[in-house]
């Protein structure tokens, strides 16, 4: 019985840990909303028909922790959906309605990530696009694909989805399953793994073909050669031909472990590759992470990888800057949390190498005016969405102008090409000089995340696109 998942709020409150969020598999009806265990006969909440539970205990517990605050709003959403009922909708019609509904939930509860996600990721018939709740009201059966379990067809349509979509969703379902199991085993949602022993010679990331090549030839995972497919989509035929069932399971677990680890390793590797692009090569590295949130703080342990891949590097200092960048006490009056040592592996300790972190709670253009500011070697904005957000003009624009003015190299990443295009269009208007034009990031995370609104069956990835600017065009 999954106990840690049941207890996730308490584990979360105990400190900075990564916990699996509500899985799509729960929203789409095959995992319990509270403990995330799989069941073919989940009991649906009779009021909202959206939350499903494996047992009375899970339902009671979930009601007391979360669902009592959600149920009523889901009922309202269902009523609105009913007013908009159409016997058949195109994807564009469906996604337009969904976008507005999700937006109104976000506006009503901006700090609640689960509430809008339950609606955003809701089950619907892939042909007529009537939602699970609409079909339930009409007593029309909604059949689940028995392979991926995440795509549906209603009894009136009997549609099928393409094998390529099915295979992407199967992979995604395996990631969710792995994350839940890994959290039960270790208390963490995503694995962290660095190159175990610091390299004695430097191999450039920019000369590497990508994750597989890096793991086999730069890091220390040569054992995956011939067992995992180079694109990480599955195991090689050899494993199925000669491996025992146990062996296949072990290899699949290794594939999932490394696939999920790329979602944290994407940060240090994207940084390191940018440093290679701007030919940075000094013994002490100072990085400013802008708009950093819990995600970046959780990934910090993986940043030791930068030390392990660059033999000449003696110290790595990171300053996290942003309104949600904070490691100090909530009531500390000053916004700066000074340099603090982070633990290093035994080899680095013996070598006297150091990792430090500091944080500033506030916007970057304020931070630069303080005595605590030291000019960095690289400024990094991971998936910041700096042109799109509500705070774009007030918060980001003065910062971006200052970065261009200061001539410091700045690395940006985005979730998709559209975001990268929007951001670069704005930067061209500001006359910024591109050191690296926007393009796919070789070191993007490999964990697929379905997005449900922009594109039917669309998936996005951490740091999918990247570009680097430095100074202005003259
Ligand atoms: Zn349960
Ligand atoms: Zn309910
Ligand atoms: Zn249908
Ligand atoms: Zn399928
Ligand atoms: Zn180390």
TrEMBL record:
<dbReference type="InterPro" id="IPR046824">
    <property type="entry name" value="Mss51-like_C"/>
</dbReference>
<dbReference type="InterPro" id="IPR002893">
    <property type="entry name" value="Znf_MYND"/>
</dbReference>
<feature type="domain" description="MYND-type">
    <location>
        <begin position="32"/>
        <end position="71"/>
    </location>
</feature>
<dbReference type="Pfam" id="PF01753">
    <property type="entry name" value="zf-MYND"/>
</dbReference>
<keyword id="KW-0862">Zinc</keyword>
<dbReference type="InterPro" id="IPR052839">
    <property type="entry name" value="Mito_gene_expr_regulator"/>
</dbReference>
<dbReference type="GO" id="GO:0008270">
    <property type="term" value="F:zinc ion binding"/>
</dbReference>
<keyword id="KW-0863">Zinc-finger</keyword>
<dbReference type="Pfam" id="PF20179">
    <property type="entry name" value="MSS51_C"/>
</dbReference>
<protein>
    <recommendedName>
        <fullName>MYND-type domain-containing protein</fullName>
    </recommendedName>
</protein>
<keyword id="KW-0479">Metal-binding</keyword>
């Amino acid at each position: 019985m999954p106990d840690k998942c049941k207890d996730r709020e308490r584990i979360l409150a105990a400190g900075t840990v990564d916990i699996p969020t509500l899985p799509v598999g729960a929203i789409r009806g095959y995992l319990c909303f509270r403990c995330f265990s799989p069941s073919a006969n989940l009991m649906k909440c009779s009021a909202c028909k959206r939350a499903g539970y494996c047992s009375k205990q899970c339902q009671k517990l979930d009601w007391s922790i979360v669902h009592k605050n959600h149920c009523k709003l889901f009922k309202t959403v269902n009523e609105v959906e009913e007013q908009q009922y159409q016997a058949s909708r195109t994807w564009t019609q469906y996604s337009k309605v969904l976008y507005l509904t999700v937006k109104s939930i976000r506006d009503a509860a901006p700090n609640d990530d689960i509430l809008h996600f339950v609606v955003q990721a809701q089950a619907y018939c892939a042909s007529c696009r009537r939602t699970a709740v609409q079909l339930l009201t009409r007593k029309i059966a909604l059949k689940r694909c028995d392979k991926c379990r995440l795509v549906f067809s209603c009894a009136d349509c009997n549609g099928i989805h393409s094998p390529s979509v099915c295979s992407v969703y199967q992979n995604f379902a395996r990631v969710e399953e792995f994350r839940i199991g890994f959290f039960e085993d270790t208390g963490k949602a995503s694995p962290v793994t660095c190159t175990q022993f610091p390299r004695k010679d430097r191999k450039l990331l920019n000369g590497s073909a990508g994750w597989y090549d890096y793991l086999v030839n730069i890091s220390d995972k040569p054992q995956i050669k011939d067992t995992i497919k180079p694109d990480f989509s599955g195991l090689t035929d050899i494993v199925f031909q000669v491996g025992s069932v146990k062996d296949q399971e072990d290899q699949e677990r290794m594939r999932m472990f490394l696939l999920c680890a790329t979602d944290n390793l994407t940060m240090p590797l994207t940084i390191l590759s940018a440093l290679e692009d701007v030919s940075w090569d000094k013994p002490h590295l100072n990085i400013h992470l802008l708009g950093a949130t819990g995600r970046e703080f959780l990934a910090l342990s993986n940043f030791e990888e930068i030390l392990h891949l660059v033999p000449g590097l003696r110290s790595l200092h990171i300053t996290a800057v942003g309104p949600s960048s904070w490691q100090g006490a909530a009531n500390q009056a000053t916004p700066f949390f000074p340099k603090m040592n982070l633990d290093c592996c035994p080899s680095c300790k013996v070598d006297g190498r150091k990792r430090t972190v500091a944080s500033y709670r506030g916007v970057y253009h304020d931070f630069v005016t303080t005595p605590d500011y030291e000019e960095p070697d690289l400024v990094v904005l991971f998936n910041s969405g700096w042109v799109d957000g509500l705070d774009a003009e007030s918060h980001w624009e003065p910062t971006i102008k200052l970065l261009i003015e200061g001539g410091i190299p700045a690395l940006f990443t985005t979730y998709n090409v559209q975001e990268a295009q929007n951001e670069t269009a704005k930067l061209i208007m500001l006359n910024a000089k591109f050191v690296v034009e926007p393009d796919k990031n070789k070191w993007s995370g490999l964990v697929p995340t379905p997005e449900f609104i922009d594109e039917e069956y669309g998936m996005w990835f951490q740091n999918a696109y990247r570009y680097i600017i430095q100074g202005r065009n003259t």
